[in-house]
Amino acid sequence: MVVVLADGPAEDLYGMFINKVRRERPPEMLEEVRGLTKWVPPPVKMTRSFVEENINRSRKRMDVAALDMLQFHWWDYANPGYLDALKHITDLKEEGKIKTVALTNFDTERLQIILENGIPIVSNQVQHSIVDMRPQKKMAELCELTGVKLITYGTVMGGLLSEKFLDTNINIPFAGPPLNTPSLQKYKRMIDAWGGWSLFQALLQTLKKVSLKHGVPISTVAVRYILNQTSVAGSMVGVRLGLSEHIRDTNAILSLLLDEEDMGSITEASQRGRNLMEVIGDCGDEYRA
């Protein structure tokens, strides 16, 4: 199965892609392609007409009769309009314009409220890594009870969970790779909140031992560990076409089997750091502070 993530201008690219598949591939190939898009509405009144207008725009741009998955995000919990929006989205799902409804960066409290309102959520996309284990606190318990799955991002922390940053001291100028992207800087702040660079180096050493045992990179071990966690259904790994596509390493995730000793040593190294639920808050709170 080919899963394509799209939002904003990327919806137009998906529309071009799916039409190329229609023209050049056998009809059955269409059954193997899924397009996921995201909607982050402004804080206006969530009327049926406003919601439907935006959904129809995505359907037109992606050139599909029904969105395979709509991932919904809402910034301000003090504004309860997210429930109105999701109720309209559910109606549109029942009318055949959306196949599945999902969330991005919702916390446990709001996810429970949404589910209690009868909205059929299939997944919640959250930040989750060996450093950031917050989803395995309250969120995982609710997911187990309700069947909602977690889709994770930040699982290799923008590349920090890799050999590239092993045995480096970024506090010394030119002593290691520069943190020269917003992603690297963002996840470095998570490391600081968790326990700092020295403790992170100890974690990388643990991951390196496991990676050598299985003949795979640190990043592959890092993703497999999270995929082994309760309620995690999938993990997104970023790529830069032509620069760092990670195709071989990503394929290796599917066949990697971490044994009890591997899982235990990684868990122990992860738990040396602070509980980020206490430092930052629940899933998505880092965007709402």
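[next item in queue]
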Amino acid sequence: MGVDEPLRWIRRHNHAVSPPVRFAGIDIPAAGGSLLPSLTPVADYLRQIDPDTLPLIQEAMRIAGSFAGTSAAAAAPAWTRLPTADQDALTATLTRLLIRFRAVEPLYVSRGDRRSYDIALRRLEGACQADYGFRAMAGLFAGNGLTADTSARDVYMAESVLWHLERNDPGTRIVLVAHNAHIQRSPISFNGHLTGFPMGQHLHNALGNDYFALGLTSSGGHTAEMVRDEQARFGFTIEHTALQPPEPSSIEAAFAAAGLGLSVAGLRQARTWAADSAPGPDRIRLQSTFLHTPVLDAFDGILHTPASTVADNVECEADDPGGVRGGAGPGTHARQEAQGEGDRAAAP
């Protein structure tokens, strides 16, 4: 993912400052690969707080364990092969548990404490959102999915960010590291078909201008293209792919024409200019292709590097457990020419 050195820098930084930079995950369990990372601690919680519900969550864990994988790309196809009765039983059981959690909140808090209840509830919500995602992905791959049905994951991630903000001191700031397609503020469409509402759109709606979407891209170099392969460890393989020259009307073409090299462009003021003149760039790189989107509306700023490279450890990090990606494409990072430039990254 190309963030190894920035993370090491932050760890060294934390040894010398107070308060330290804190890290938190925001994604659904195993980035959609398995429900067990969420359901296991929820079962431990219920064992102490509401043991009568243990048979319910144990049944959910049994079904979830039968198709658990290392990523959504591996788990989703396995989910489609489950008997329909198991698919429906898993959804019904998770929904029943979630409704009970919310309905008897005073009971659970009185038997434990507020913090442990909030965390257990959030984990269960993550499992429910991930379960919904399996159905959405199945529909997407089959060609009969509902419009924008894959948005459930991004809604959960946005709510996770807000969850952490609400439970921290006033004035807390979060640096959120994720793929461009997760942080952008406008809907995602492919070939004119609406496919999802990204996390960034939800955060912008909730936080207004307090949310700043900084995209990352490059005008050249290589990217790690993901190719679906159910036999591979993560449900896909990685192909090192050379980036083609920027397409006309892309933000990359604008950077290349300006000859700025490693640079940052603020887009908020540019929106005002574009409203009175010609529209801005209408596409940005997405792996080795281009996503057609109004760039000035989608992002508040763009960090551009002349070339991106594929991280050496991309294969072992391909499951993306925290939803953390570089904007130039999964598994890529900006190879920055100025020594030390990469040391100022942070994580959620």
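[queue empty]
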